[in-house]
Amino acid sequence: MSTPSREGPADGLPGEHGAEPHGRGLHGPERSTAPQGAGLHSAGLHSAGLHSERTRLAWVRTAATLAGAGLVMGGTGLRGAENPALLVPFALAALSGAALLLRTGARYRRVEQALKEGVPLDETTDGRLVWAGVLCVAAGALVLVLTR
Amino acid sequence: MDEPDPRFTLANERTFLTWLSTSLTLSAAGIAMAVVPQDVFVPWVRTLLAVVLVSLSLVAAASAYPRWRRIQRALRRSEPLPPPALAPVFGYGVAAVAVVALLLVLFAR
């Protein structure tokens, strides 16, 4: 359980056709190691392009949920709220979700570029922003539940 | 230190986002529980269940980022991944809240 499952095909990760060497760009002719006619496990599904697209969609989903949660929970808190300061964390969360939504396109292009050039994919700015937004929602929800 | 396969890095990022989505869902569930009409639940029980859900949400959110970084470090060093130690807490916690809520709804009728 506690070891990386680098041998299994789960989640579209490298499996029976062998793992790619570490640190290599995955766009280009060296990407496919599958024989022709290998069905679903052939080159297309093992490309990092699909992984980066799925990751982009995950960012869009999370950012949209964060922005929506900030707005809806802020609206819920606004009804009957005695202290408008309760709305601040939800407003911050909605803003961070909106900012992330605006950044997903640029982020995707940076990831694609990094994959092409084989440079490390390690950017934490958006990660910290979304983390802060979700922490704001959770903290605001706790205060709202306790003071309601 | 070698860079891990980009696909593992991206999978790790998606797992981080999934933890955050779980946290948002738990926050929403907690607030929904807090606004349930008073004739369905006794107020203190309603608040207790809401606090449990929102506390789980806080734990999920707080642990997501450090876990993401830890896994990335482990991937770079080709070390074993840290186990998802808190996952059972969320499973059992949400299940307990659901069972209590169901019993209260059934007995309130």
TrEMBL record, chain A:
Chain segments carrying region Disordered: 1-44
Transmembrane stretches, start-end: 58-78, 84-102, 129-147
Mind listing the UniProt keywords for this protein, alphabetically? Membrane, Transmembrane, Transmembrane helix
* Major site of localization recorded for this protein: membrane
What are the GO cellular component annotations? endomembrane system
Whether Mitochondrion counts among this entry's keywords is: no
Question: Which residue intervals are annotated with compositional bias (Basic and acidic residues) in the record?
Answer: 17-30
Name of a matching Pfam family? DUF202
Which residues belong to any copy of the DUF202 domain? 52-113
Q: For this UniProt entry, which residues form the secretion signal?
A: none
What membrane topology term does the record carry?
Multi-pass membrane protein
Keyword Membrane among record annotations: yes
What name does the UniProt record give this protein? DUF202 domain-containing protein
Q: What organism does the UniProt record list as the source?
A: Planotetraspora thailandica
TrEMBL record, chain B:
Q: Where are the transmembrane segments?
A: 16-36, 48-65, 85-108
Entry keyword annotation includes Coiled coil: no
| Sequence ranges assigned to domain DUF202 in this UniProt record | 7-74
InterPro entries assigned to the protein according to its UniProt record, in alphabetical order = DUF202
- Name the domain of life: Bacteria
Q: Which UniProt keywords apply?
A: Membrane, Transmembrane, Transmembrane helix
- Stored Pfam families: DUF202 (PF02656)
Cell location: Endomembrane system
Specify whether Transmembrane helix is a keyword of the entry.
yes
Gene Ontology cellular-component terms for this entry are: endomembrane system
**Membrane topology, record value:** Multi-pass membrane protein
Name-wise, this protein is: DUF202 domain-containing protein
Q: What is the lineage of its organism?
A: Bacteria, Bacillati, Actinomycetota, Actinomycetes, Streptosporangiales
